[in-house]
Every structure is written in structure tokens, then in C-alpha cells.
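User: Could you go from structure to sequence for me? I need the amino acid at each position, not a summary. C-alpha cells:
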């Protein structure tokens, strides 16, 4: 028998959960535990996943001894486009406010744990005074990321033997964590069933709920379209001096693949091939920028994280201060760097931002239900940005392209 694909499973679970929530209101506790276990499992993997992913990422870049001019340019492009993407999301979510007044049946009221009132405080707290305490406190995610970056960097500064042992070790840990994450993600349909049934059962205004979720999805999609069809083409046109339409045509296949697999990593071979053969980028540039991009350059994911967290905050009735919104932007950027290029990795990362700004993780509940659909669009955006980066950088290195 052919296996039903995960996104269909999720859709089926979603519909069944709504029906269950409506017709078996009183018996919702028979299924709500599944949602709780699923959320706990997601929380369980956050710290080791982020730690190993960032340590590996940083150590591998250093090992390739590529942190020269090319490395700097690439990083600059990646960070700049991700920030543009996040700001587009932040702008639209503040204008449309999809979460305001949305009754998502979020049980507890939040008493926002204030992160710090000044930028100075925030910066000071990024440096952990006890890294083991940070590992055990979900709210100190930034410290964990900070430590991981330093650790990864200094792996590359040690002697040959230590360097090799440590890089291989953390690559292996990361492999294990990716497998473990994929395993947990297989249970998403059950998790969604529990969470959505519980939400629906406690919901008087189901239509209102659907409307808020619809508006939320619309805001994410609009922001992704703005970034993909306006910002990135402008950068490609004016910084790269490449015709964005021709380039789009050249990378159609990887974009469709990204959309249907929801995985930048799985799409990577096709992206490399298209960028080399159709755009005419040299292998030197593509083999450096694209694998790096598939791992750390995730414009769509960064944008999505920001909108999702703002949506949850709005639904909780929490007004985030400018300082906290800046924290959301910075963490969304870091979370997108730390997210693996696999389906639904962005969802795991949202929990990090929520903890950083002090919002309850339960807020993820309904977002989860529509995550898989949005994942397709954000992954395509991620790959589109990687490919634009490759041509922009190739041009800046003086290459003559076909597009
Ligand atoms: N699926 C995305 C990717 O592979 C990551 C994410 O979940 O946002 O690019």
C-alpha cells in the first residue's frame, strides 16, 4: 500500500480534529494528551538541535577556509536578505494585525516575562553566566546560540586532531538530531489531532477562529510574495545586474521541487545544477554559496517565524514593545540560520522565539495546523533567495552569466 504523504495525513487529521471537537466536546480529554506529548517532544529537541546545528554550521564554514572575501560577501547577502524578509513580515503583521481579537482559546493569560528594558541589558544577558543553567532554561536561548557560535568558531582554531574529532563528533550529533526531529515530525498528524480538537471543543466562535487563521495565512503569503517578487528581483536586478525574469526561468525546476518537498536540503542538488547549467554560474561559486545557503539562508522561514510569533502575541493580547519586537527580529534571524533545511523545521524554531520573548509555547497549537501548507511557500522562497544570491555573488566576482 502506498504511504499517504505527510501533508495529506495532516489535512485529514485537521478535519477529523475539527469534527471531533464539535461532536465530542465532553470527551476531548481522550485525545488532548496527544497534543501535549507532541509539544513536549518538540521542546525536548530544541536545545540539542540548535546547539549541534549551529556548532556544525560554524565549524564547517571555518574548516573550508572559505571565510575570505567570498565568505564575507555571501554572509552579507544572506543576512541582509533575511532581515529585509523579516521586516516585510513585521510590517504587514503590524498593519493587518491578524491575531488581534482572535480567540484562539489560549487558556492561560500571559504575564510577559520582561527580557530587559534596555538594549544594554539584553546584550549583557546574551552572555551566559552559567551555560549549563542556560541549557536548562528555555528562556535563555540566545545565550545558548551565542555559546554555540563561539564553540563552533573555536573548534576551527584548535590543532588538526582536535579539530577533526570535534567537527566529526558534532556533525554526527547533528545527524542524529535531524533523524530524531524527522521522527517526531512523523507524529504531527496525531499532535495536531489532539491540539486542534482541544481548541475547537473550547471554542464558541468557530467561524471567527477560521477567519483569524485565514487572515494569518494571508499575511504570511502576502509577505512572502512581496519578498520573492519585489525585494529579491530588485536586488538581483540592481546589485547583481541580472535579469530576474530570465533567472527565474532558469531555476523553475528547483523552485517547484522546493515547493513540493518543503525541504531546501532535498532540493539542493537541483538548485546547484540549475544555477550552473542554466544561469552559467561557476562551480566554485555555486558549490560554496548554495550548500551554505540551503542551511543558513532562509528568508521565507525568517519572515514566517516573525509573523507567527507576532500573531501569537496579538492573540494573547500582548503588546510587544519596540525592544521586544527587535528581539523578535534578531531571534527570527538566528532561528532561521539554525533551522535545518527539512520540512517543518521552522515550526520547531518558533518555540525558541516564543521562549525568548516570554510567550507560552501553547500558542503554537493552531499555527501548527497550517504550518505544513505555509512551509511549501516559505521553502520555495528560501531556495529562490539562495539562487539569487548565487548569481549576485557570481556577478560581483566578475563572472559572465547566461542570464
Ligand atoms: N522547510 C524549510 C526548508 O527546508 C525550513 C522551514 O521549516 O522553514 O527550507
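Assistant: Here is the amino acid at each position, in order:
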Amino acid at each position: 500500500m502506498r504511504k499517504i504523504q505527510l501533508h495529506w495525513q495532516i489535512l485529514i487529521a485537521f478535519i477529523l480534529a475539527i469534527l471531533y471537537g464539535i461532536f465530542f466536546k465532553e470527551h476531548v480529554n481522550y485525545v488532548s494528551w496527544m497534543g501535549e506529548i507532541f509539544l513536549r517532544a518538540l521542546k525536548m529537541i530544541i536545545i540539542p538541535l540548535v546547539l549541534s546545528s549551529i556548532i556544525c554550521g560554524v565549524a564547517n564554514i571555518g574548516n573550508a577556509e572559505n571565510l575570505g572575501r567570498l565568505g564575507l560577501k555571501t554572509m552579507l547577502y544572506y543576512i541582509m536578505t533575511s532581515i529585509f524578509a523579516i521586516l516585510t513580515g513585521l510590517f504587514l503583521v503590524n498593519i493587518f494585525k491578524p491575531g488581534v481579537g482572535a480567540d484562539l482559546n489560549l487558556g492561560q493569560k500571559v504575564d510577559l516575562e520582561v527580557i530587559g528594558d534596555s538594549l544594554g541589558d539584553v546584550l549583557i544577558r546574551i552572555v551566559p553566566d552559567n551555560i549549563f543553567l542556560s541549557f536548562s532554561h528555555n528562556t535563555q536561548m540566545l545565550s545558548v546560540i551565542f555559546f554555540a557560535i563561539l564553540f563552533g568558531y573555536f573548534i576551527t582554531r584548535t590543532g588538526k586532531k582536535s579539530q577533526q574529532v570535534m567537527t566529526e563528533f558534532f556533525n554526527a550529533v547533528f545527524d542524529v538530531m535531524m533523524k530524531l526531529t524527522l521522527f517526531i515530525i512523523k507524529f504531527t498528524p496525531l499532535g495536531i489531532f489532539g491540539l486542534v480538537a482541544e481548541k475547537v471543543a473550547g471554542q464558541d466562535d468557530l467561524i471567527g477562529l477560521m477567519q483569524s487563521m485565514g487572515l494569518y495565512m494571508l499575511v504570511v503569503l502576502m509577505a512572502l510574495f512581496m519578498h520573492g517578487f519585489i525585494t529579491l528581483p530588485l536586488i538581483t536586478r540592481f546589485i547583481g545586474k541580472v535579469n530576474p525574469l530570465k533567472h527565474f526561468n532558469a531555476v523553475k525546476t528547483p523552485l517547484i521541487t522546493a515547493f513540493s518537498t518543503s525541504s531546501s536540503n532535498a532540493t539542493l542538488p537541483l538548485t546547484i545544477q540549475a544555477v550552473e547549467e542554466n544561469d552559467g554560474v561557476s562551480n566554485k561559486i555555486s558549490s560554496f554559496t548554495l550548500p551554505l545557503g540551503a542551511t543558513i539562508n532562509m528568508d521565507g522561514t525568517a519572515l514566517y517565524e516573525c509573523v507567527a510569533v507576532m500573531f501569537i502575541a496579538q492573540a494573547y493580547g500582548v503588546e510587544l514593545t519596540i525592544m521586544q519586537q527587535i528581539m523578535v527580529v534578531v531571534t527570527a534571524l538566528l532561528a532561521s540560520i539554525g533551522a535545518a533545511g527539512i520540512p517543518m523545521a521552522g515550526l520547531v524554531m518558533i518555540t525558541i522565539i516564543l521562549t525568548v520573548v516570554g510567550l507560552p509555547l501553547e500558542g503554537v497549537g493552531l499555527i501548527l495546523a497550517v504550518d505544513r501548507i505555509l512551509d511549501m511557500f516559505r521553502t520555495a522562497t528560501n531556495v529562490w533567495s539562495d539562487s539569487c544570491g548565487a548569481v549576485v555573488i557570481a556577478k560581483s566576482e566578475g563572472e559572465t552569466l547566461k542570464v
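One structural detail worth keeping in mind: The chain has one domain: 6-396.
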